[in-house]
Structure prediction request, 342 residues.
Amino acid sequence: MKKLRNNNLKPLNENDIRPKILMQEQKKAMKADIEWLKNRSMDFVNVCCPSCGSKNSKPLYVKYYLNHLLCNNCLTQYISPRPTKAVLEDFYKNSLNYAYWAKYIFSASADIRKEKIFKPRAFFLKENIDSKYLNGNLLEIGAAYGYFCEEIKKLNLFKKVIAIEPTPDLAEVLRKKKIDVIESSYEKAKISFKFDVIVNFEVIEHLFDPREFLKWCFKNLNRGGCIFLTCPNIGGFETTVLGKESDTVDHEHLNLFNTKSIKKMLEQAGFEKVIVSTPGLLDFDIVKQAYLEKNINKNRLGPFILSLIEDESLDSEKKFQDYLIKSNNSSHMMLIAYKPKI
Ligand SMILES: [Zn+2]
Prediction:
């Protein structure tokens, strides 16, 4: 299993992809979104564990007026009661936070995101796809600005690269980039053929029903084809250390899987040969910044992490992050899984 690496000398840091100066304004937009959701909470519904279906859970905490539960069976963390599909559709259409990210943050960090995030993903897929399926069809669900579509097209691996994007402004961005786009939610998309690869990045944690989504992907793949996805790993270093203080725990991430629970969910949807890796590069930097800026209690970090933070050498930080990646303990995970050939 090849891991993603950041080959530049300077490690990728949080400021590269979320410039601080812009994030301050973004916080206001996010607050408005949280209020919007709070006002719709009468329409929320209770759910079982979105990963394994168990009803056996315990309450963790409330953040942004939302109840976080921990599944006692598979340790997935999830929000319940949660907004219904209809409320979510309305929410993302009206989200000020999304509009702000679209207008400022993504455009300010587009080059670095392409180079350090999407290009390595395209190469990873190239290395992990059965050559028989090259020159086939690829579908990206939630293609946003089309960074992955652009990078994968450059590699000339697929006959067709198609994007599903429900947000009208983003669909327009994709059309301008000459990417084939279906402007629709995945459930309502009209597709007359199957795909060899379906990819989605940072999508599954937002969905009302992730198991239904995986079944849809399975149904729309050719035999032997694969699904390739990324999402947060709640069992990773950054999210374990920061817990409720982690920005990963927010009002949009309804489902927070760990490496084992998501693997099982993919297998239950029919996929096989599931490979999970955690190529996240930012755990240590995020924990360090949280400690320096958010008054995180020293006891939460412990002496070992504190000594690493106080050690000014970037080399030990990088080695520690490399260890997290190699041991599958980073808080950002990547999965590839295959539909059986027969
Ligand atoms: Zn569960």
Residues 1-9 have pLDDT under 50 and may be disordered.
